[in-house]
# Entry
Amino acid sequence: MISVRPDLRALEGYHSAQVDVRIRLNTNESPEPPPAAFRDAVAAEMSRVQWHRYPDRSAAELRAAIADSHDVDPSMVFVANGSNEVLQTVLLAYAGPGRTVATFEPTYQMHAQIARVTGATVVEGERAADFTLDPGEVDRVLATARPHVVFLTSPNNPTGLVEPAERVRQLIASAPGLVVVDEAYAQFADWTALDLVGEDVPLVVTRTFSKTWSMAGARLGYLVGPAALVAELDKVVLPYHLDAVKQIAGRLALRYSDEMDARVKQIVAERERISTELASLDIEVFPSGANFVLFRPRHHAGRAIWQGLVDRSVLVRDCSGWPRLADCLRVTVGTSGENTEFLDAMRALLAAPPPPDQNGTSR
Ligand SMILES: *Cc1c(COP(=O)(O)O)cnc(C)c1O
# Structure
């Protein structure tokens, strides 16, 4: 039997339960499909796709539209199949064997995962008790590991925490290599690191169409960074990686930014409702600047609550097995009706006395 690379043997794949339930609040997608006018516009342009030809390799029109939306030059935009492929391309070019990548946990698991797949060594620093970056720990990791790439997720996943701008500035100033700020949820927060991007700044900011843009099904993401870095990524990525249909869909989606802004407002309002109501239920609720809320029941096991929700056909993300997140669950903000059903289920579950576990305690 042919054997896989030894360093991959211990790796586990990406796990997120795909359970058949009525209310899916586990993967932070948008609860609504894109506007109907968008779908009609895509259908109309689809009829003009030259199916027998390769697509525009540089995705020039899509890049230009994204660049325009952020008021940067198209040479500063790199586009790929989901922001995960953007991250993978960055890591293929700037990490890989013999290089080191730093993360600050708990955070998005794919950063360490993709880095390891490229053969890089991953160093995991710890966040402070409130899950912000701890400046002392950041200094320690940067000084001892001298990472070629440092990841920061803001708003962070799964905590929802928005990193204070000052901490991000400090990190960029002190990092020996490239800083990647993953802003998959930036539209739900009150500031963006995009303003810090510049030709001489070792910073890239990644974005996705999977969340705010209601297009998780399309697999489209991008980064904004120095043009010289984007040129290196263009060398590394596979030719014609972005298919013609996706280029059309991404370009047309950007015409509906007003509708998307309105939805973001609605989701933020619902997020605040969920946070307030959960907090009134004897639950620890972590402040969120994203489209989800991390919470920890004080007197019930997180796993038992997760199962109780599944039994009521509501699926949330079970984070209780992650380091430092014992008993934590993460709920994606859904439609108003879905959120109400989730909250009703939580109320019912918490009203029941917690079942004693093997140790006879309530946890
Ligand atoms: C959801 C998410 C992404 C999105 O990845 P895509 O490949 O664009 O779907 C990226 N980063 C974080 C932190 C996320 O939570």
The domain at 37-256 is CATH 3.40.640.10 (Aspartate Aminotransferase; domain 2). The chain has two domains: 6-31+258-351, 37-256. The first strand starts at residue 23 and ends at 25.
